[in-house]
């Protein structure tokens, strides 16, 4: 509920502001250790990204409550925002977006890790699990850039707003696509923040959607094998439906004003 989210936000904000907070049956404060605040900044940012990778990956609608708290904390404590991006870029290079190139002398395992795969005991995780985690993180990022904490003073601009989403989209379309990954993440991103981008960029946005369908989609199709068609077809249907209706629907689970009265 909205009231629970406020409690969580206030607790995190109080902790970062140097106040004493109850946690795990103890009273803790960042002032108890000279590096206390640095440690909390780092671990909190890591936790937000982990929630994208785990919670949002399994429940897409969880992106919005997590993102609105992350966005509000970022606004008041910019250091946390820098570290959210650092953790996100390390775990999901596609959020930069960046496709790491294979370099001579790099072991295959290390290269797979650079691409975001989990490698345990020389076993590389399954592709569907990998895509699910990457989707979760991209969806969280797409939610953060469009949401603001509704109880802030709202004096300045969003600390990492929709212009970053526009840039991400443009950079993705300037890169050679990767089979499976590109279609999946473009779909995830547009499903979450396409509506917000459409409202902000209007004609320019629809030009980009047309470019995706007419020029970029065939390039993804050209490198996609028959076993990887699922993500491609989902992306194609989404593009065609949006272009036909000249509308991108609000994402499922987006926080309506009534949510904050709950």
From TrEMBL:
It comes from Crypturellus undulatus. PANTHER family: GLE-1-RELATED, MRNA EXPORT FACTOR GLE1. Coiled coil: none annotated. It is found in: Cytoplasm; Nucleus, Nuclear pore complex. The keyword Transport applies. It comes from the Eukaryota. Belongs to the GLE1 family. One of its GO terms (biological process) is poly(A)+ mRNA export from nucleus. GO terms for molecular function: inositol hexakisphosphate binding; phospholipid binding; translation initiation factor binding. This is mRNA export factor GLE1. Keywords: Coiled coil, Cytoplasm, mRNA transport, Nuclear pore complex, Nucleus, Protein transport, Translocation, Transport. GO terms for cellular component: cytoplasm; nuclear pore cytoplasmic filaments. Required for the export of mRNAs containing poly(A) tails from the nucleus into the cytoplasm. May be involved in the terminal step of the mRNA transport through the nuclear pore complex (NPC).
């Amino acid at each position: 509920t909205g009231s629970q989210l406020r409690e969580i936000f206030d607790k995190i904000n109080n902790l970062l502001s140097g106040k004493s907070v109850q946690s795990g049956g103890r009273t803790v404060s960042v002032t108890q250790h000279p590096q206390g605040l640095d440690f909390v900044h780092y671990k909190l940012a890591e936790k937000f990204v982990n929630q994208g990778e785990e919670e949002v990956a399994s429940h897409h609608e969880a992106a919005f409550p997590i993102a609105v708290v992350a966005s509000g904390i970022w606004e008041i404590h910019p250091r946390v925002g820098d570290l959210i991006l650092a953790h996100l870029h390390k775990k999901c290079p596609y959020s930069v977006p960046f496709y790491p190139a294979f370099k001579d002398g790099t072991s295959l395992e290390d290269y797979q890790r650079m691409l975001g795969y989990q490698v345990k005991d020389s076993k590389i995780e399954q592709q569907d699990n990998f895509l699910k985690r990457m989707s979760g993180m991209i969806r969280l990022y797409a939610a953060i850039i469009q949401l603001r904490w509704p109880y802030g003073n709202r004096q300045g601009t969003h600390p990492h707003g929709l212009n970053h989403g526009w840039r991400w989209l443009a950079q993705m379309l300037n890169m050679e696509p990767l089979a499976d990954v590109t279609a999946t993440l473009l779909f995830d991103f547009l499903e979450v923040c396409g509506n917000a981008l459409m409202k902000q960029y209007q004609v320019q946005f629809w030009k980009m959607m047309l470019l995706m369908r007419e020029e970029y989609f065939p390039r993804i199709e050209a490198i996609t094998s028959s076993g990887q068609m699922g993500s491609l077809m989902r992306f194609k249907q989404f593009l065609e439906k949006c272009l036909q209706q000249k509308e991108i629907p609000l994402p499922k689970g987006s926080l309506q004003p009534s949510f904050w009265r709950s």
